[in-house]
């Protein structure tokens, strides 16, 4: 990994000094939420939104359930964030179980609701169904969806990327080709699947650069709230869980407070090293909880924007 002089100085500072002392907070953050199923989950989501909004995130995004199962709830959540907060809201949208006409209609509804940013994805078939199959008259890939969205409105488009290669991709080269196709179709940012070692992201960044792809890469940071659940997610996402993490979370299942501290430390340390390596935008998978993401942002020097300062 080639480092600029600034990055080398930053890396030395990270190695020699206290990791988190007086960081300037010269970075952008964004947060991902999922649409709540119940009034109680709605309440806790909104508490998380109200806690994180003062950090003036570049945007917040709301996921779109497998197979379009949360179409209405995703729309309602995004629309509420647009109406009730000053923060740009992005809606996730997938190709699964919807025709091109239906997806174009959803895009028009978002545009009419003031949403100017879409996270465009191929998506996964609903639980249990094997392999993605485009519906007749549907979009067959994220790149096709990106092109269709750009044809309809001048949306800002973010897409996904996979530092450890998507489980379905035949090879890293095929994965980079898919990313290039999405970029060529109009996507300007690629948010990464979660990972747990900074070099995983740096190696991927170098490979994307070597492929001549000039797309903004944003690391997706998943603070670990439940290690057992994480193991299941990692298998389905093809994400490597380093053995040291298993040893670190061992014995903490019934100690939520200690587990949170360990989770914040692990994610903050990785984010600090990514920062030392030149990363200046971090995307947090909040799982609709604010504490861990807020603590990590605070450690990285992010403070409430002036208008929110007490
Ligand atoms: C930041 C982020 C946000 C996400 N948000 C959501 C969400 O809100 N809702 C949701 O349901 N899922 C979401 N996902 C998961 C995503 O839908 C799955 O990872 C899905 O399997 C791939 O969708 P994609 O857009 O990343 O696919 P692409 O980037 O188009 O493809 C990923 C890889 O799979 C390969 N591939 C694609 N299609 C095929 C095919 N038909 N046959 C063989 N190989 C193929 C490509 O070559 C590429 O290598 C998200 C993932 C990320 C990283």
The count of DSSP E runs of length 2 or more, i.e. the number of strands, is: 9
- Content of β-strand: 5-15%
Q: Enumerate the distinct ligands.
A: flavin-adenine dinucleotide
The averaged pLDDT comes out at 92
**N-to-C SSE string, H for helix and E for strand:** HEHEHEHEHEHEHEEHHHEH
| Helix percentage range | 40-55%
What would you say the CATH architecture is? Alpha-Beta Barrel
Q: Structural class per helix/strand content? A: alpha/beta
| The first-level CATH class name | Alpha Beta
Characterization of the model:
- This protein has helices spanning 5-16, 39-52, 71-84, 100-112, 142-152, 172-184, 198-210, 227-237, 243-249, 256-276, 291-299, and strands spanning 28-33, 59-62, 89-94, 117-121, 156-161, 189-192, 216-218, 220-221, 281-285.
- The protein has 310 residues and is an alpha/beta fold.
- It has one domain: TIM Barrel, CATH 3.20.20.220.
- Strands 7-6-5-4-3-2-1-9-8 form a 9-stranded parallel β-sheet, covered by helices on one side.
- The model has no long low-confidence stretch (mean pLDDT 92).
- Flavin-adenine dinucleotide is lined by residues 63-64, 66, 92, 94, 119, 121-124, 132, 141-142, 160, 166, 168-169, 174-175, 178, 191, 193, 220.
């Amino acid at each position: 990994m080639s480092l600029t002089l600034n990055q080398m100085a930053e890396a030395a500072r990270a190695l020699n000094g206290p990791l988190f002392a007086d960081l300037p907070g010269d970075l952008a953050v964004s947060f991902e939420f999922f649409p709540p199923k119940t009034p109680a989950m709605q309440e806790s989501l909104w508490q998380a939104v109200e806690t994180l909004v003062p950090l003036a995130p570049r945007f917040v995004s709301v996921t779109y359930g497998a197979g379009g199962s949360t179409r209405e709830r995703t729309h309602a959540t995004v629309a509420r964030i647009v109406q009730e907060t000053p923060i740009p809201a992005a809606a996730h949208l997938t190709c699964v179980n919807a025709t091109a006409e239906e997806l174009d209609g959803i895009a028009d509804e978002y545009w009419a609701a003031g949403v100017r940013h879409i996270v465009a994805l191929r998506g996964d078939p609903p639980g249990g169904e094997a392999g993605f199959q485009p519906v007749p008259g549907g979009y067959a890939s994220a790149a096709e969806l990106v092109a269709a969205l750009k044809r309809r409105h001048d949306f800002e488009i973010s897409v996904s990327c996979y530092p450890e290669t998507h489980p379905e991709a035949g090879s890293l080269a095929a994965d980079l080709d898919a990313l290039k196709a999405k970029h060529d179709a109009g996507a300007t940012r690629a948010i990464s699947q979660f990972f747990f070692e900074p070099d995983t992201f740096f190696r991927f960044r170098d490979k994307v650069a070597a492929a001549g792809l000039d797309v903004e890469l944003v690391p997706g940071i998943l603070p670990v709230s439940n290690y057992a659940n994480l193991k299941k997610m990692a298998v389905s996402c093809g994400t490597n869980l380093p053995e040291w993490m298993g040893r670190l979370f061992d014995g903490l299942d019934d100690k939520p407070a200690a587990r949170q501290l360990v989770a914040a430390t692990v994610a903050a340390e990785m984010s600090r090293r990514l920062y030392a390596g030149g990363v200046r935008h971090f995307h947090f998978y909040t799982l609709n909880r604010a504490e861990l993401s807020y603590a990590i942002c605070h450690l990285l020097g992010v403070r409430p924007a002036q208008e929110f300062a007490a």
